[in-house]
Amino acid sequence: MPTGWLLAPNGKWLLLFRRDPVSLNNLPIFYTEKWQASSYGTPAKFQNRRAAPLQETIETWNELLQSGWINISNKLGGEIE
Questions:
Q1: Quick one: which of 33, 44, 63, 64 is 20 to 30 A from 57 by CA?
Q2: What tens digit of pLDDT does each residue of 7-39 get?
Q3: Is residue 43 included in any domain, yes or no?
Q4: What is the pTM of this model?
Q5: Residue 80: inside a domain, yes or no?
């Protein structure tokens, strides 16, 4: 499942991927939140949020990882509910 935080290669942006807890199990919806990153690589300022189905979210997650984004979920506490 694509959940947690990804940090942009330039360190300026963070994306939080999390499942909508009220979406149906057979049709899960995921939120992707864009944050400005502080100089410490932590969320500093919320930018926007979008919702997408599971398959689209998986594709986005994988594309970002392949283009150099770093999964830092363990440093920021993993998934946020």
A1: 44
A2: 999 999 999 999 999 998 889 999 999 999 999
A3: yes
A4: 0.89
A5: no
